[in-house]
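Hi support team,

I'm filing this because I wasn't sure whether my run with 8MY finished correctly. The job status page said complete, but I'd like someone to confirm that the output block is well-formed before I use it downstream. Pasting the exact inputs I used:
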Amino acid sequence: QFHMIKHEDLTWGESLGQGSFTHIFRGHKTDQRDEVTHTTEVLLKVLDANHKNCWESFFEAASLMSQISHKHLLLVYGISVHKSKNIMVQEFVKHGALDLYLKKSMSVSVSWKLDVAKQLACALNFLEEKNIAHGNICAKNLLLAREGDPSSDNSPFIKLSDPGTSMTLLGKDVVLDRIPWVAPEVLDTLEIELECDKWSFGTTLWEIFNNGEAPLQGLDLIQKQQFYEHFSNLPALEWTELADLIAQCMQYQPELRPSCRSIIRQVNSLITSGNTQVFAICLVQD
Ligand SMILES: N#Cc1ccc(Nc2nc(N)cc(-n3ccc(CO)n3)n2)cc1
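And here is everything the job wrote out:
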């Protein structure tokens, strides 16, 4: 169910960092279509050689993304297997991962953040309708295709990246390190269900409104595990309605978390109330 890309059709550019057991590189792929050579800029995601045993899960994650297509889901062109290298060839998303972008540019507006939140909620709703759980929703896996800047007031555009190798294969410590993005029940079941993505949506909202700062950053694995054992919650944001939505998503009982439809409705009302507040302030100032 995959397009196989020949290794000789790939050219490698600079390293752009690494994820869990993967390295990512800028690159290009060439394909011949009726005598015309097309060159496309791509992102090459390589599975570490010492985690070759995860290659099925690595490609499983990618195939999930290539079976369905949606404007807010990353496009995976195919895979390339060459000697001991397992390579996923993805569309190159111009501005990279959202967590780094938020840390760099502290000046994005509330409406910018709510727009991103709404797009993620739509992507999750699409996956929910297909009964597909992603399993790794976080700001690092949200890719910024369009910046959208305050002056020309065009809005940001995000793409949800592949979930990567299933953490259930990656071992307990990887699962613990994903606290507080991983839903608490996953620590017992190691199963990813739709409700898990709602928990992670709450954590990602928290990240977005904390300018990309990682929640529970300084905690070690024991302290992270205790965070769940004590049924702790992330520090509430000032904006009460937003804090409420995060709290609804991050309920320890999976069945109490809101549906994607409800999440979209609540983000929409935050957008409306946010605009009203700005509008009111302008009225007062004038
Ligand atoms: N400076 C810079 C810069 C870095 C990356 C991109 N582009 C891109 N395109 C993708 N398809 C995927 C990713 N990822 C980045 C982290 C992950 C983890 O999942 N993916 N980055 C653009 C600019």
